[in-house]
Each structure stands twice: as structure tokens, then as C-alpha cells.
Amino acid sequence: MPRIYLDHNATTPLAPEVVDRMTAVLRDEFGNPSSVHHFGQRAKAAIDDARSAVAALIGGDPSEVVFTSGGTESDNFAIRGVAEAVEPTGRRHLLSAAIEHEAVLNTFKALGRRGWATTLLSVDQTGIVSVDAIRNALTDTTALVSVMHANNEIGTIQPVAEIARLAKANGAIVHTDAVQSAGKIPVDVKALGVDLLSISAHKIYGPKGVGALWIRRGLRLQPLLTGGKHERSRRAGTENVAGIVGMGVAAQLARAKMAAEAERLAGLRDRLEEGVLRAVSGTAINGTRSPRVPNTTNISFDRVEAESLLIALDLDGIAVSTGSACSSGTLEPSHVLKAMGFPPHRTQNSIRFSLGAANTDADVDRVIADPGSGAGLMSPAGRKGPPRRRFPGTCRRPGLYGPAPIECASS
Ligand code: PLP
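^ inputs. structure came back:
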């Protein structure tokens, strides 16, 4: 049975061009980029090329790009780096939204425990952060506003440029997490008007464990990692040369293919969405349909539990995800859908379909025609019956996936 991967917001497969280039770098470019000799300088040149490619993807200058270990580190660096740098000024308020990724939310929580005032705004059922709510929440002591560009669970695109204008007029520094938008839609740091922007390679067909933080020239951040003078003293540690080069190739490919791929994926996504809504009663789309990144839809199912549906689809060879996190055997509702004010049956029973490069019309046809039919969850019987169906112990499923309980994190 050919498997269909519809979880590209969690991660993407490596582009073949990325594999080829990374393989060559792993084999041939073993020099330390800090070394002055030939071997080191070759590795450094490869990093510089990647830096230019990443900068081009987001409209920045290569000197403003700092490579990190991924989106999580970039978000941490932006928030903690600003907080530590501005602490002496007396600005001790951080502002963000409750629909952010855990990399932002938990960094806010950690700083809150250290005495920072933090505000996390809820949103309405469109899944868009209100510019008015930002205006009302800004204070004279707001040091940083961090609002994601596109949401990872529902795909909604946030009004970052408007928020940045307001926040900067108020003297705050502005960060955006563009992990789910870069490479999918045009991202331009100048048009957005932000000071800091996070991206991650593995969401754009690059390798895991590498990302970047764009830092507007002139902005001073306290580094997270101290050590040598790597990355212009902004991030210490010998560079992950192959990973960085892989990210550069991925950025180049994303930029070249973006317009056509966005149109293709939006067409597939819309057909999938309409097909599921038509075939299964009690379904609804979570968040506004526009503006949204082209590859994502998030659908709630009234009559089945999302975890059960996810497993049924997986058994049928279709990989999707839920925003619900399961840990220690209990199913936590999606924090994004909760922040949007949805009732429990929706926060716990939603599926994210996120499409990508390998998906075709035939994949969409198969999902619409036969989703979860192995368990009868979306079949005609499942459509009629009100009782919710659930696999026993969906968070702990030793029979299906091995003995260990599955711990989930948002992606
Ligand atoms: N921010 C968003 C919006 C994400 O979707 C993710 C990953 O799922 C991250 C940050 C974290 O990125 P990484 O997996 O590279 O640490």
C-alpha cells in the first residue's frame, strides 16, 4: 500500500538536491570553518553561500542571518536575547498570543517565573490575532512583541506588518516566528517591519537540527551560547556545516518553486477540504480560510475522536496529525483551538492535514474516498451514528506502536 504523507507542517522529507549536496559536504568539507587554512576556508565559503541563500529567501542581508539548531533555538534566542539585553532599561513586559508555538509560549513562561510581566492574547474563531488587542495590551514597559507569521496548526497568517508598526511606535522590539510561512508564502523582513525572524530548515525540505534567526542590523541581543566568536559572536560553537549547507539549498529551491507550488498546493488543499466536508457530516474548518498558508487545513469531526481517526487513517496509510498533545496517557486539547474559544469536542477532535511536494491529485482522491474506512470512522456508518468511536487508550497504544507511551509535542 503506497503511503500518503500529509504532515508537512510537522516536518518535510529532504529534497534530493539537499541530500546530494549534504552528502558531498559531509564527505569533502570536513574543515573547521574557523580555520584559516584551505580546508577551513572551503567550509566557510560553503556556509557563506548558504547564508546568502537564506537571506534571499526572507529579503534580508546575509550579515544579519545567524544559524542556530532550529526554530526552537531561534525563538528562544530572539526572546531571551532581547529580554536580557533590555533588562537594564526597565522595560519588563513581553507580549504575544496564546496560539504561538510552545517554543515561544514556554519561553514566555520561563521568563514569567523570573519576574517578567507576560501577556498572551487569546484570539477569536478566525484564528487571527487582533491588532486592536495588541494596541490595548501594549504598555510603556513592553520590551518585546512576538507574533508568529503563520500558525502551525491551522495555517492562519497573522497581521505581522500592522502589529510591528504599532509595537515599534511604542518603542518595543518585534519578533516573528516564520517557521511555518517561510518557503510557503513570500516573507520579506523589510515589508513585515520586524526586528527578528525565526526559520527552520526541516519545514522546507532541509535537514532537522538547523535553523536561523534573522537579526536586524544594529539590534543587540544577549547570546544564548557563550564561547568562541562564531557567527560574529552571536552564537558560539563550531558550525553544523552540512546542515547549514542543506538549509541553504532548501532555501534556494523554496524560493525558486514558491509561486507555482503555492498555487498547486492551495488547489489540492481546497479540494481535500471540500471533499471531506461534503463526505462527512459534523465537520467544520477551524480558523478562517483566508489568509492562510496554502498547504494547511484543520478540520474538526463531531462524531469521532481525532486520535482514533488519526490511527485509523494511519492504518490506511495516510499520515496526518492532531493538535492535541498526549502525554502521560491523557489527551490534552489543542492549545491553539482552546485559545480560539472552541468547545472541548472541537479542541480535542480536530485533524491537521498539511500537504507538500510529493502530494498529488490521486492522494487527495484517496483521502476523500476512503478516509479511515478501516475503522468505519468516516464511512457511511460512521457518518450516521452519533456515538464517538475511540481506540482503547489512544495515548498509550502498545499494541499498535510498541510498548512505550507516545509523548507528543506541537509541531
Ligand atoms: N515554531 C513553529 C511555528 C513551528 O511549527 C515549529 C516546529 O514545529 C517550531 C517553531 C520549532 O522548530 P524546530 O522543530 O526547528 O525546533
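The first strand starts at residue 4 and ends at 5. Residues 70-72, 75, 101, 103, 148, 152, 177, 179-180, 200, 202, 211, 411 surround pyridoxal-5'-phosphate (CB under 6 Å).
thumbs up if we can close this ticket
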